[in-house]
Amino acid sequence: SGAVTMWKLLVPSLGHTETEVRLASLGALVQFAEPESHDAIIDMAAAEKDGAVRVQLCLAARKLKLKPLIPTLIEWLEDEAESVIMGAANALRDLSGQNLGTDAAKWTAWWEKNKKE
Fold first, then answer.
1. What is the per-residue pLDDT across 48-65, written as a single tens digit (0 to 9) for each?
2. pTM confidence score
């Protein structure tokens, strides 16, 4: 399918200066759901500061089951925006099968016990 090659065209836009471009590119990558694009999405999350984009990254983590984003999602539990905090908590719940709410300390302790070395 075209998704096999199209996702590669979108990856550079994940770092664009315009929020709308990053959101659109992320949305398209989630729709393509091409596993090879997951590393680019994970890298994007590590650098992302915009709350709206972070919320969409939380949804992407849930849909694509991006467990490598767990440490980043735990960090986002301390974001200023309630929407980011709730998005991160929901993504963590879905990815882990745990329901530790929005308490970053509880999630950090859980992660330290459960991450693969």
1. 999 999 999 999 999 999
2. 0.92
